[in-house]
Write a structure and sequence with these properties.
By secondary structure, the chain is of the alpha/beta class. It has a domain of 213 residues: Isopropylmalate Dehydrogenase (3-Layer(aba) Sandwich). The chain is built from 16 helices and twelve strands. The strands form two sheets. The protein has a ten-stranded mixed sheet, sandwiched between helices. The protein is globular and about 70 Å long. It binds 3-isopropylmalic acid and magnesium ion. The site of 3-isopropylmalic acid has 7 residues, from helix 6.
Length: 399
């Protein structure tokens, strides 16, 4: 009995290995990189997702359409709404991304995506894979780029989280070998580690930041984290202007809380699961995950999203309209920068800082004691239109 369980598990493991080898071949072949400068129209898909997703996606769409109004008129940019990435529909077809929705997503060059509910074992939904994780794998969005910035504390961090490997790549592929034994897999590849770390090094080098920190637990997770670390140091040799050091994830989580040490970190590259955890902690300094946006970058496609979940409780309790849309709007700013509008992205980020961190004329509390998302984005919009915006920003910089 146990023997056959072991045989079945071996077969399963064999299939997992074969799939990963195929993925490596695809990475080696490379994919053509999208050139937004020559592309017309750049199709921007807006995916509401579920829970609070559609509420905050709507606010973000309004602001982007406003900032890109000229491009929309000239036909350089086109917005598309993508329906159906809801937990109800995903549960119905038992797929993390229903085929027809995926087809629509693939017709867009970039997407702005609201949060999507991820079922877990024991939930009333079928235990389907996370839509985020599926999209990252399906569109090969290998880098999850997450900035966290608190100017008043001297915090200016850019996290490069590996997005298609680690424990996540095979998170849905674990096996319950027997009733008593469950096994999950984690994977690191040369190609996958290299492309992520290279992106982080390029970013550091182009922005005149002379430091990259690699974060692993390579003293214990020797093989996969060991590979990530080794490749990091190897590639670093090609970037003599960037100094590379490395920290273990446990002490790193502690150092982020240390006001004397944390400002030294600037650009960080780390495997998938550590990146998931550390970026939530990091976002807390900025006002919580509700304020943080993220870019999921691939060569062909890119997707921009809030880093938090779909908060179904907010909807159940009738509070969805009080959700802070800042994370999605911040993701929208990253989207604009990515497709070639860095000035407008900067302006939007400035406005988010002025309204959310300095001026705080309206405060979001997630309930009726604070502003609604709609009123908050009207406040943002009004600030964008302010001809004296730059002066207003300087006032806060001087403080
Ligand atoms: C994130 C989220 C996702 C992740 C979940 C929803 C699967 O926490 O984007 O950080 O773990 O990657
Ligand atoms: Mg997370």
């Amino acid at each position: 009995m146990n023997n056959s369980a072991v045989e079945q598990a071996k077969e399963h493991f064999g299939r997992v290995l074969e799939q990963q080898l195929v993925r490596i071949e695809k990475m080696k072949a490379g994919e053509e990189e999208t050139d937004y400068a020559t592309l017309k129209p750049i199709i921007i898909g807006i995916i509401g997702g579920d829970g609070i997703g559609p509420y905050i996606a709507e606010e973000a769409r309004r602001i982007l359409e406003f900032l890109l109004a000229d491009e929309q008129k000239s036909g350089k940019v086109e917005f598309r709404n993508i329906e159906g990435l809801t937990i109800e529909y995903r549960a119905l077809v038992e797929k993390p991304i229903p085929d027809d929705v995926l087809e629509e997503i693939k017709k867009c060059h970039v997407t702005l995506k609201g949060p999507t509910t991820t079922p877990r074992k024991g939930d009333p939904w079928p235990n389907i894979e996370s839509a985020n994780v599926a999209m990252r794998k399906e569109l090969d969005l290998f880098a999850n780029v997450r900035p966290v910035c608190v100017p008043s504390e001297g915090i200016d961090w850019m996290f490069f989280r590996e997005n298609t490997e680690g424990a996540y790549a095979l998170g849905g592929d674990g096996i319950e070998v027997t009733d008593d034994m469950a096994i999950d897999f984690t994977v690191a590849t040369t190609q996958g580690s290299e492309r992520l770390i290279r992106l982080a090094l390029d970013y550091a080098s182009k922005n005149g930041i002379n430091k990259l920190t690699l974060i692993t637990k390579a003293n214990v997770v020797k093989t996969t984290d060991g590979k990530f670390l080794k490749i990091g140091y190897e590639i670093a040799k090609e970037y003599p202007d960037v100094e590379v050091d490395d920290w273990y994830i446990d002490i790193m989580t502690a150092k982020l809380v240390d006001p004397k040490r944390r400002t030294q970190f600037r650009v960080m590259a780390l495997p998938n699961l550590y990146g998931d955890i550390l970026t939530d902690e990091a976002a807390e300094f900025q006002g919580g995950v509700g304020t943080a946006g993220a870019a999921n970058i691939g060569r062909k496609y890119s997707m921009f999203e809030a880093i938090h979940g779909s908060a179904p409780r907010m909807v159940d309790e009738g509070r969805a309209q009080y959700t802070d849309p800042s994370s999605m709007i911040r993701a929208g700013a990253m989207l604009m920068r990515h497709i070639g509008y860095p000035e407008r992205a900067k302006k939007l980020e400035m406005v988010l800082d002025i309204c959310g961190q300095f001026e705080k004329k309206l405060v979001m509390t997630g309930r009726d004691t604070g502003s609604t998302g709609e009123k908050f984005s009207a406040y943002l919009m009004e600030t964008i239109r302010d001809p004296d915006l730059e002066d207003r920003w300087q006032t806060y910089q001087a403080v």
